[in-house]
Amino acid sequence: MTPRININLAAFAVISAVMMASTAYADTETERLREALRSATAQTRQLEDQRTALQARVAEFDREKAAAKAQVDAAKAEVRDIQKQHREAIEEFNKRLAERDETLEKWKAAYEEAATVARTKDAERAKFEGQAAAYKASTKNCVAKNGQLFKAGGELLQQYQEVTIGDTIVAREPVLGLRRVEIQNRIQESRDKLLDQKVTP
């Protein structure tokens, strides 16, 4: 054999070895890529499943959020109603309290007026009772003095009836005037009795 054929054989051998190595490498690389593709596909499926699960959870959260929002809105509406009822109850209470205070003031004023009238009436009653007692005592005194006055008047009339014409002549006797003095003394006595029975106010 010639050296040229040897070179060609050697080159062929090298090329064959390279091709075989290249084919083996390509098969290995292909297998590796296929494995990578299978792994990526599995991961993609897994991620897709996770995404679907997450979307389902997000939808569930959205439903829960909507339900919670509805509950919060209902609770807020209930709180507003309760606050409104509370305000109305306070206003009603304050109104009734003001009416009670007004009624109490009226009763208080009426009581004070009644108490003032009662005190006035009591004072008047005490005054009238005092006056009545004084009038009773005065009337009793007047009745007693009237009896004495009637008696003195009766005595005076009796003496007047007993006067005779002779007494009249003797009373006018100008010389001694003794009878006249006696008559004047009697008159003065009668006058004193009458004055003693005079009622003084």
Summarize the structure.
Helices cover 93% and strands 0% of the residues.
Task: Give a structural overview.
The chain is mainly alpha-helical and 201 residues long. It has one domain (6-80, 82-88, 99-162). The chain has three helices and no strands. The chain has helices at residues 3-162, 165-171, 178-196. Helix 1 packs antiparallel against helix 3 (178-196). The mean pLDDT is 78.
**Number of discrete helical segments:** 3
Provide the helix percentage: over 70%
- What are the low-pLDDT stretches, counting only 5+ consecutive residues below 50? none
Tell me the distance between the termini.
194 Å
Shape: rod-shaped
Q: What's the helix-strand series? A: HHH
Number of strands: 0
Proportion of residues in β-strands: under 5%
Mean pLDDT: 78
What's the domain count?
1
Helix and strand content put the structural class at mainly alpha
Major sheet details: none
Rg for CA atoms: 74 Å
